[in-house]
Inverse folding.
């Protein structure tokens, strides 16, 4: 229930930060359309729950604008991923994709505008000091840039219809999917100003969590429910896409998933030993592990 209230707050504030245009265009409508498309808000929730755990007074208010910025970066990436030049998808989460409603050029600009707005939210955040703003801006640009999410997407596109190694696949997922998940956790550590040891534990936890997320994605493409997933099951194999399942087989992929769950929980145990309440992060780890879509 607490997490649902957090998601409600995120949803409300995401839309409030993008009012109608003073220029008389419907660009903002296009931006809000994709922000409203649904989703579990995993990244901002992860940031806020981590910050709540790390804060002495168990509050997450200092991280709200950074969490919104993170979701905007994620949403922009989805808009661009859906374009004909990339994945060429007509639907996302049961709704027409942005370019199907507003056209390709406006979808491009909506994505660009969300990315730009994200950095504006952090730079104008009065809840954090200037040093923290600079650190978060640097971390988010790294996580979303050419050595992070965009670099991972590039490597993924270049690997289509090719047989790639497990090492390359892990590199794709570490950057394309894992970089923003890691940012969520590391940003909370930056805002809370934790010591180096705690920061390193959280960084390891974030790496395992990113791999749990992606390996589970690959497994759901084999045995998931198409209606819940919002896409056909077996699309990876049909599109000749390398996944953990195609490279390792189903049984070894399940074993690898279990390994990363155990390692993530071990990281949380280290934090618990330091008197941090890891209850919510334990729940999120299980959510990643047990999810069906």
């Amino acid at each position: 229930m607490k997490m649902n209230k957090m998601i409600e707050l995120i949803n409300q504030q995401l839309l409030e930060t993008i009012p109608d245009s003073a220029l008389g265009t419907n660009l903002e409508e296009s931006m809000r359309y994709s922000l409203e498309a649904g989703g579990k808000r995993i990244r901002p929730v992860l940031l806020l729950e981590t910050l709540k755990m790390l804060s002495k007074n168990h509050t997450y208010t200092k991280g709200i604008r950074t969490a919104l910025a993170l979701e905007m970066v994620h949403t922009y990436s989805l808009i661009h991923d859906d374009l004909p030049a990339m994945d060429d998808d007509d639907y996302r989460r049961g709704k027409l994709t942005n370019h199907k409603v507003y056209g390709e050029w406006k979808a491009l600009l909506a994505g660009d505008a969300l990315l730009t707005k994200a950095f504006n939210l952090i730079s104008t955040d009065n809840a954090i000091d200037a040093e923290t703003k600079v650190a978060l801006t640097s971390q988010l640009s790294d996580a979303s840039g050419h050595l992070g999410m965009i670099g991972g997407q590039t490597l993924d596109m270049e690997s289509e219809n090719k047989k790639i190694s497990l090492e390359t696949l892990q590199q794709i997922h570490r950057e394309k999917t894992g970089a923003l998940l890691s940012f969520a956790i590391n940003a909370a550590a930056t805002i809370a100003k934790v010591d180096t040891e705690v920061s390193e534990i959280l960084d390891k936890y974030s790496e395992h969590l990113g791999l749990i997320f992606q390996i589970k994605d690959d497994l759901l493409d084999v045995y998931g429910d198409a209606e819940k997933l919002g896409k056909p099951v077996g699309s990876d194999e049909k599109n000749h896409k390398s996944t953990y399942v195609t490279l390792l087989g189903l049984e070894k992929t399940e074993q690898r998933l279990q390994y990363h769950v155990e390692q993530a929980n071990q990281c949380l145990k280290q934090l618990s030993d330091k008197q941090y309440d890891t209850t919510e992060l334990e729940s999120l780890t299980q959510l990643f592990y047990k999810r069906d879509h």
Q: What stands out?
A: The chain has a mean pLDDT of 92. The chain has 16 helices and two strands. The first strand starts at residue 91 and ends at 92. The first helix runs from residue 2 to 16.
